[in-house]
Design brief:
Rossmann fold; six-stranded mixed beta sheet; 16% strand; 8 strands; single chain; alpha/beta
Length: 245
Amino acid sequence: MCAGSACENVPHMSFMPVLRALGDLVVPLECAGCATPSVRWCPVCDDAVGWAPTRCKTRFDTGMPVWSVTPYRGAIRRALVQWKEHGRTDLQPVLVHRLAYALASLLTDGELSGLVGDTTPVMLIPAPSRWLAHRKRGAHPVRDLAWGIGEEFGDRRVDVAEVLRLRLGSRDAVGLTAAERVVNVRGKVVLRRNAGTVLRAVAERSPHVILIDDIVTTGALLRESASVLRRHGVTVTAAVVFAAS
């Protein structure tokens, strides 16, 4: 430890750039969308996302509006694959912030209720995913998205309820046809243990119930999830997803 007068002559140094450089030597940092070096998410890819949520037309009727932040293509598609399948958790704040902004816009503009500046309490329910996928990735990406969105709202009540799960036996949906996706989730979405108590509280408060997912392809999983919730007395207001295929 140096005395005050001695320390005054030592130039101020930040070790963060050095640590980042050393990290890049082990695992080179690059934009998840376009591979631009030394950035996790470049301005060009960020501009490609946009901000205004768009109403999606899904292959199957989900029984509720489905809104997405961006199309699932190009740099966005590559980035989501990196985030979900290859451990790019550094992209989580990007996805969370855009989804939170989209939800806030829908509430402010009255798209969810017809009431501009809607202040109704919101309950976010993550769409279910396969247990084997969680085990392989060591994470629950969609669940983490929902919790991240909830944390971004500081001036209104936004809760998260993890009440849905997929039974064992469902397959990875990648590569399945639209018809196969329907069969793959039919009867596979069920409530988690003790979820009934949570759902009764949700129904009593009558908040907006919003399904959250990363990607919508056909709408089959969202439709099945909403159907299960409806059978237990909860009507889903809408689904908000990051990307629409």
